[in-house]
From TrEMBL:
Keywords: Lyase
CDD domains: crotonase-like
Matching SUPFAM superfamilies: ClpP/crotonase
Protein name: Enoyl-CoA hydratase
UniProt GO molecular function: enoyl-CoA hydratase activity
Family: Belongs to the enoyl-CoA hydratase/isomerase family.
Family matches, as InterPro entries: ClpP/crotonase-like_dom_sf, ECH/Chromodomain_protein, Enoyl-CoA_hydra/iso
Superkingdom, taxonomy of origin: Bacteria
PANTHER family for the chain: ENOYL-COA HYDRATASE_ISOMERASE FAMILY PROTEIN (AFU_ORTHOLOGUE AFUA_1G01890), PTHR43684
EC number: 4.2.1.17
Gene3D superfamilies linked: 2-enoyl-CoA Hydratase, Chain A, domain 1
């Protein structure tokens, strides 16, 4: 499939989605939105893919919504597409409706999504980065909510996600001030998992992804990811009950048998995801 605003590669169990408008710091467009979702769903449905990486081309991750889109909304020449607002009717009853809106679908993917934040992530670009499961950043990365300085509000669920990552007060600081946050501060806040020199970012991300793809049960990753996100809506008792039920299912899986076998036989794992 040909893409206009992204590139998409699958290799050695890793799918890499790259926002590809480097001359615009990968500013987000309607085309990019459709292409990213198409690539993500393709990777999620491909049994050969174990991990997904999302990054940006050039010196930016994503500078936010393209200003042509914002200008079009302001003068009324562009309208939000159907499904653009939260509360969209779920299209898959097996997945929480919360994780099926315009940008909140990353948690519904069964594969881990690693954000390789290689440069500025502002506004909508920051929102997209937060929906990644794990974030590694270049020292050149800058995070900025930007909304308040555009006369906007906390869009697309960032008011839900950001406090869960860095806490209530810190989230309000970043939202209200729209100030720039360096990669080092983002690490201190818990906004990112690790920070690397610019030229070391993608090697580190690929090495981490390769370890997951080669040495970890894809079934375990899918179940754990679902548990963690669903637990945000559960009591402790409910989370314990789900964990107990999933453990019983795990004992009957091929990956559990392989997990024991490769450990005892001291050989590389050959997980199937079943």
């Amino acid at each position: 499939m040909a893409f206009e605003h992204i590139t998409f590669e699958k290799k050695n169990g890793i799918a890499t989605v790259t926002l590809n408008r480097p001359d615009k710091l990968n500013a987000w467009t309607r085309i990019m939105e459709r292409e990213v979702r198409s690539a993500m769903e393709d990777a999620d449905s491909d049994e050969a893919v174990r991990v997904i990486i999302l990054t940006g081309a050039g010196r930016g991750f994503c500078a936010g919504a393209d200003m042509d889109i914002l200008s079009g909304i302001e003068d009324g020449s562009q309208k939000r597409e159907p499904g653009a607002v939260q509360g969209t009717t779920a299209y898959n009853v097996a997945i929480r409706a919360d994780f099926q809106t315009q940008y909140s679908y990353f948690p519904s993917l069964s594969k881990p999504v690693i954000g390789a934040i290689n440069g500025p992530a502002a506004g909508l670009g920051m929102v997209i980065s937060l929906y990644c499961d794990i974030r590694f950043a270049s020292r050149e990365a800058i995070f900025m909510t930007a909304f308040a300085k555009r006369g906007l509000i906390a869009e697309h669920g960032i008011s839900w996600m950001l406090p869960r990552l860095i806490g209530h007060s810190a989230a309000l600081d970043l939202l209200l001030s729209s100030r720039k946050v360096t990669a080092e501060e983002a690490l201190r806040l818990g906004l990112v998992n690790q920070v690397y020199d610019a030229d070391a970012l993608m090697p580190a991300v690929n090495a981490y992804a390769a370890d997951l793809a080669q040495n970890v049960s894809p079934r375990s990753m899918a179940v754990m990811k679902r548990q963690v996100y669903n637990a945000e809506f559960q009591t402790l008792n409910e989370a314990v009950a789900v964990g107990n039920e999933e453990m019983i299912k795990s004992f009957a899986s091929e990956d559990f048998k392989e997990g024991v076998a490769h450990f005892l036989e001291k050989r590389p794992a050959r997980f199937t995801g079943r």
